[in-house]
Write a structure and sequence with these properties.
Layout (H helix, E strand, L loop, with lengths): L6 H4 L11 H11 L1 H21 L5 E8 L8 E10 L5 E10 L16 E9 L8 H67 L5 H33 L30 H14 L1 H23 L3 E11 L11 E10 L5 H69 L4 H35 L13
Antiparallel strand pairs: 1-2, 2-3, 3-4, 4-5, 5-6
Helix pairs in contact: 2-4, 3-4, 4-5, 4-7, 4-9, 6-8, 7-8, 8-9
Length: 467
């Protein structure tokens, strides 16, 4: 399938002039974001592999034909058996067997009555393969892999929600930067009209007008740069904001921008303690390692099983069919045997056991560090939010003070008590302070997104451990 380029620009975004809220973006991430939809399909993949592993326990039809066209004894026999492996180990089988022709006296097992005989039997492991065998181990590990899909999906779920939040607030920040750049350009253009009249009246030197025109061009460049940043932020956000029907990206318009950032709120200390405690159960890392430990225990049981000797019991029932049973054949026969074998050396099984035990120790070390890392990331992102909140308050105060100085300098300039250069410096200081405030807002909400990801605030109940 070929990619369709420029899809976001094809959609009628002009019809969607309502303010775009964050929750709408997150909702489309949950329901339409292709990478997350692909992650959810991992459950179907693993369910298919569980079914594949369960296929080892499917019944098997066995049909055999034995004949000897050039032998002294020209007997032939045919059998049809259905063999059913058992989840408890071993297998049972049943079917039909019939023979024709002549057989030697020592070939009783190949000879049946003319109408044939019904056959039923069982093979039961008494030592090795009693508690577990390769088929049951594969099925058990496939079931664990199906559960492992949940933490893998959850990791991407949290990552994509964090990315969507950051893209949304970056879009707002880019819009705010563009607004600030346009506003300072508007001031310079308005002053240009005033200075033209002053220059024509001979009240100011023409060079002052030229200086302001230079400032206009400089600020026009700043607007172009801000516009490009806003376009890039809109395109990035369109990957998360999608049409509910077609699931194609929607390029958000400037008309959909919120008027300002949401009012920021610091994370409460008690709420943080609660979030950090729940993060141990909500984050996918520990759950993933716990499931890998379950797989390791299955490997350990299988390796321990392979160290044991074989002791198998087999029983078979033969029931003659019809009334023409020869005298030397019993109507009902039961045969059984025990088979014992033991591997010599067992280096393969011992080496496998050593590797598995070492792997389990590795996983336990990783689990301990994962718990510590979750606590550290929760603490770090909480401090980051608190620091960003305090910095935001300072930058807002800085904007207020810079604006007061600019307004005072502008009034003096109108009265002729100061020159254009000083006013430009004040305007630039206000412009820089406003940009710092926008950056501080974005830094706060980026830190908040990091915190929400660190404590797995978005984790859905369907992907968490069921207690």
């Amino acid at each position: 399938m070929q990619c369709v380029w420029g899809m976001a620009w094809v959609l009628p975004v002009t019809l969607q002039a309502a303010i775009l809220p964050l929750e709408e973006v997150l909702q489309t991430v949950r329901t339409q974001y292709p990478p997350l939809l692909a992650a959810w399909l991992q459950q179907d993949v693993q369910s298919g592999r569980v079914r594949q592993a369960a296929g080892a326990f499917d019944p098997t039809l066995l049909a055999t034909l034995n004949f000897r066209p050039l032998d002294y004894y020209e007997g032939a026999n045919v059998s049809f058996l259905v063999d059913q492996p058992l989840l408890s180990g071993g297998s049972v089988y049943a079917g039909y067997r019939v023979s024709t022709g002549t057989f030697a006296s020592y070939e009783r097992k190949d000879r049946t009555s003319p109408s044939g005989e019904a056959v039923a039997g069982a093979r039961i492991p008494l030592w090795r393969d009693r508690a577990i065998d390769a088929r049951r181990a594969n099925l058990g590990q496939a079931a664990v892999d199906r559960e492992l899909a949940d933490p893998l999906i959850l990791r991407q779920y949290i990552t994509f929600h964090r990315a969507a939040r950051i893209a949304y607030y970056n879009w707002i920040a880019a819009g705010q930067r563009l607004h600030v750049a346009e506003n300072v350009l508007r001031i310079a253009k308005q002053r240009d009209e005033f200075l033209k009249k002053q220059a024509e009246a001979g009240a100011i030197a023409p060079i002052v007008l030229v200086d302001n025109q230079r400032l206009v061009v400089s600020r026009e460049i700043a607007v172009l740069t801000a516009q490009r940043r806003f376009d890039a932020a809109s395109i990035e956000l369109s990957l998360f904001h999608r049409d509910r029907q077609s699931t194609e990206p929607i390029l958000p318009s400037r008309k959909q921008l919120p008027r300002a950032f949401p009012a920021p709120q610091a994370v409460d200390q008690l709420q943080f303690i609660s979030d950090r405690a729940r993060a141990q159960f909500r984050r996918p890392e520990v759950r993933e390692i716990d499931l890998l430990l379950v797989k390791g225990e299955i490997d350990k049981k299988l390796a321990n099983n392979n160290l044991k000797p074989n002791l198998d019991l087999a029983m078979e029932l033969n029931q003659a069919i019809g009334n023409d049973v020869p005298k030397d054949i019993e109507n009902t026969e039961i045969n059984g045997f025990l088979r014992f074998s033991v591997p010599i050396g067992r280096n393969e099984a011992k080496g496998r056991m050593e590797a598995i035990l070492a792997s389990i120790r590795q996983l336990k070390q990783r689990r301990q560090f994962a718990c510590e890392q979750i606590v550290a990331e929760s603490d770090n992102t909480f401090q980051e939010v608190q620091t960003a909140f305090e910095a935001l308050e300072k930058t807002s105060q800085n904007v207020k003070l810079a604006r007061e100085l600019e307004e005072a300098e502008s009034a003096r300039f109108q009265e002729g008590a100061t020159d254009l250069l000083v006013l430009q410096i004040r305007e630039q200081a206000t412009f820089d302070a406003q940009l710092q405030e926008v950056d501080a807002y974005f830094a706060f909400y980026r830190a908040l997104a990091d915190y929400q990801a660190a404590v797995a605030l978005d984790a859905p109940a369907s992907l968490l451990v069921q207690k």
